[in-house]
Amino acid sequence: MPPMDRLLLKNRAAIPFDDLPKISYQALGDIAVGCLCAALRPVALFGVPEERHAESVRIVALFADDAQGTLAVTSVSAQRGATVPSLTPSIPAFHLFERQLWEEFGIVPEGHPWLKPVRYPHDGHPPRRIEEGYRYFAMKGEESHEVAVGPVHAGVIEPGHFRFLCDGERVNHLEIQLGYQHRGVERLFREGPLAAKSTLAESVSGDAAVAHATAYAGLVEALGDTVIPRRASVIRAIGLELERAGIHLGDLSALCNDIGYLPGTQLFAVMRTDIINTSLVLCGSRFGRGLLTPGGVNYDIDEKKKERIIATVRRIRDNAGLLAASIFDNQSVLARFEKTGSVDTATARAVGLVGPAGRASGLTCDIRLTHPTDAYADHPFMKTILQNGEGKAAVSGDVYARAFVRHQEIQDSLRYILELLERLDAARDGIIAPVAPPRPDMIAFSLTEGWRGETLHAAVTGGDGGTRRYYIKDASFHNWFGLALAVRDNGVSDFPLCNKSFNLSYCGFDL
Fold this sequence. Notes:
Radius of gyration: 22 Å
CATH topology of the largest domain: Cytochrome-c3 Hydrogenase, chain B
Strand content: 15-25%
CATH superfamily of the largest domain: Cytochrome-c3 Hydrogenase, chain B
Structural class: alpha+beta
Mean pLDDT: 91
Number of domains: 2
Largest sheet: 5 strands, mixed
Number of helices: 16
CATH architecture of the largest domain: Orthogonal Bundle
Helix content: 25-40%
């Protein structure tokens, strides 16, 4: 990609919005293919309404060079309702982005293989492409039938519709329809002072409160050119790794429950409780709410807290390791985990899987390693080794691999917390810094490796410094389609196990 077609920047850097290169959508397709050949991957594609032209939209495209630790950004000017050549046939990872552009601005990606709304229509009118109701993908055949689940579920979860197209018990295709609530989160970020939105950021996806709060705080700090104290950055990383370890422990418990392996169900659940109670000790919330704020953190770690955290983390690290060793050596467990819900490396790369789901399929992206900020840049994070005790790589992309990656990440997170606590005494520069207001007419991107994977918050400010556009991409945005691919050629009864091995967010998708 020629330099004039893009700008290179680091994670959490802010640049003038008018400095973005302007290219054609056709040129963007050529650039995207060139990026893919150079091992760059698409991170975001979203529209920004032009301030002075109501019908004009600036489409911002963001790519990540994980090998160099840089981000490449460019833009396209388009009119609402315009028709552009679809990027999806060449790069499937763009399929949701283009559907979102069509849904929000009426920009039609000509040649898109299955153009439909990203979120269920809510304004009383049918989707643009569908004249009579919502048309699901359909298959015909003597033995073909459909199994519809949701959107209302028996559990206390958000609405989501799952339509299985089956041949007997074998799943040929799963179509997932989400976005029934229309929470208006991105709109709420545009109202009032951006630096006062910590609680809103924590509510994007409640089980990833620290991840989204970290991405949000980093974005506000980038727009105001604010540098936080080193001590605050260490405490943020501790909170983020506690969240990761706690959720992974809960997921391993749930996976064991789905196959009826009760020792794993009960013991991992106990460990998960100990870890989230450690977050409670840290900030008064088991889910890490209230820990972060733009400029730093609200809670310090004194010696008493430090000793308690160290004791708990060491105990859980040892016990979780012993339990995992027994589980991954148990033939009845492996019989259900192995070769269930597989996504191969090429498919995972094509659709843009991130986080543990991507790493279980052989992808290596981890923002803590490739685009580190704060404590992750000052105190490098150890690289997760995706191997089991027999030296066999756990990159098979099945339930086993996704479970084993979680086990490895628990161990890595707990070791890293202990390392950070050892370094805490050397950082005596406080826990909060004054936050400067966002600079006008800027754009910034903030990437964080949440427990689900890559979490993006981006914002564009207006001439008055107010928030002109706020864009969020939860890791679930890409990974829901990965789940749909994972259940193909599996039995309908395998879906709960596959679903839990991804553990994706409904509300993080429904913005």
